[in-house]
Design goal:
Order of helices and strands: HHHH
Radius of gyration: 19 Å
Strand content: under 5%
Largest sheet: none
């Protein structure tokens, strides 16, 4: 039995569908890319560059690659991840409007709310990372744009704090530890 439980496949027959296999493939690709970005980001943040400059540059490239792949896979995975397509895409803009259905358990409602929090934190991380990396990307296209040192520092703090908050929440969401809350 796997520690991962996808919400769209509760039976053996449902696990044989193409939709389930697609979701599982995107989940695994997204989790690998996020893991690479997470580990390399914490390495780059916590390990001094004086230890090994070349290794820190390699870790930075891994972080940018992992973050870029996450940025590409996240919208697709989010669209596929919606349980039975009952969620509307605009609900991400108003998670406070999420209401409990009559037949829905409290645990499932909490799981959906946790999923929205994870989604918002992931969007903050991906968008702040993109804005942080944007000056370097524009430089390679021949444009020079700097957002200012103060803005860069605020974006870095936002990126790091959101990542620290997201890591345990994503683990809880993936492993369904919130099922014990009843």
């Amino acid at each position: 039995m796997s520690i991962f439980k996808l919400t769209i496949a509760d039976t053996v027959v449902a696990k044989r569908t193409q939709e389930y296999k697609n979701l599982l493939a995107f989940q695994n690709a997204f989790l690998v890319a996020f893991g690479v970005a997470l580990v390399s980001g914490f390495w780059y943040w916590l390990v001094s560059h004086e230890v090994n400059w070349n290794a820190s540059q390699l870790v930075l490239i891994l972080h940018l690659a992992g973050g870029g792949i996450c940025l590409l896979l996240f919208p697709i995975y989010y669209a596929l991840h919606q349980k039975d397509k009952q969620q509307r895409w605009w609900w991400i803009l108003s998670p406070w409007l999420i209401k409990r259905d009559e037949e829905e358990s409290v645990q499932h409602l909490r799981q959906r709310q946790l999923g929205h929090l994870v989604t918002w934190l992931m969007l903050v991380i991906l968008l702040s990372g993109l804005v942080i990396a944007l000056p370097g990307l524009l430089f390679y296209t021949g444009h020079v744009w700097l957002q200012g040192y103060g803005n860069f520092q605020w974006l870095m703090v936002l990126h790091i704090v959101a990542t620290i908050a997201l890591a345990p929440l994503l683990l809880i969401h993936i492993l369904w530890l919130t099922r014990k809350l009843k």
